[in-house]
Amino acid sequence: MVADVRGAPEGSIFVLHQCAHNPTGVDPTEEEWGVLADTFAEKRHIIFFDSAYQGYASGNLDRDAFAARPLRLQGPLLSLRTVLREEPRPLQRARGRAVCLHGHPEERDAVKSQWEMLVRAFYSNPPAFGARVAHIVLTDPELRAQWQQELDHMSGRIKKMRALVRKHLEETYKTPGTWSHITKQIGMFSFLGLSKEECAYCQEHNVFITLTGRANMAGLTEETAELLAKTIDGAVRKYRAGTKL
Question: Exposed, middle or buried, 122 (CB in 10 Å: 0-12/13-18/19+)?
Fold first, then answer.
């Protein structure tokens, strides 16, 4: 990734997930974010962060916001989209905000004028009720604390499902291969490392993951976590080990 950043023309625009990368579930470490920040600054790149899953990665809002901090200190033009889409979520409507951090007044004025034109063209006057609900939750200490507890619970549950899938693969079914990546990844989604044929096998057995191997870990239960592992085991033994099922 660092090589790609260095190889891009100066002033390129990079769109990054701040945490819980979708679709891979693979996030840079804090040290790696620091290296990336230095590289972005060297090439004067423009960074756009999509912060759709803040709180879903670790369960901690502050910890999941780390990625933008070293970039902010380095001084590249930095945009951040914060989305309150996943929850709180009244009527399935997304609420969020766009923030641009800059170092010069002329940059501020240029960005502001462009955003004003986009806002006018796309929605002009969006519904306010979703933002008002979010405001009530985030400004009331008791409601905010409850919301943060729920975030921690939800992220913890996803981690538990990851651990269950890995345990069944390694211990229950002794599936050939290495499955530690399932628990090393973070957030709602996981790249399972399956081939297209193996993914198609899973779909044929009513386990619906994408043909690229992305699975929604947030949608699993204790029962379906084992079903996923069992089906992966069947796919791997058929296409890798040559075992006749």
Answer: exposed
Instruction: Please give the model's pTM, rounded to 2 decimal places.
Output: 0.82
Orientation of helix 222-239 relative to helix 196-204, angle to 10° = 130
pLDDT in tens, 180-196: 999 999 999 999 999 99
**Positions of E strands within 95-209:** 96-101, 189-191
Crossing angle of helices 129-139 and 141-167, in 10° steps, is: 90
The tokens describing 175, both together, are: 């599936």
96 phi and psi angles, rounded to 5 deg: -175, -170
> Regarding predicted confidence, which is higher, 102 or 18?
18
pLDDT in tens, 226-237: 999 999 999 999
Q: In this structure, what token pair is assigned to residue 225?
A: 């976590």
Domains in the chain, please, with CATH? 1-139 (3.40.640.10), 155-240 (3.90.1150.10)
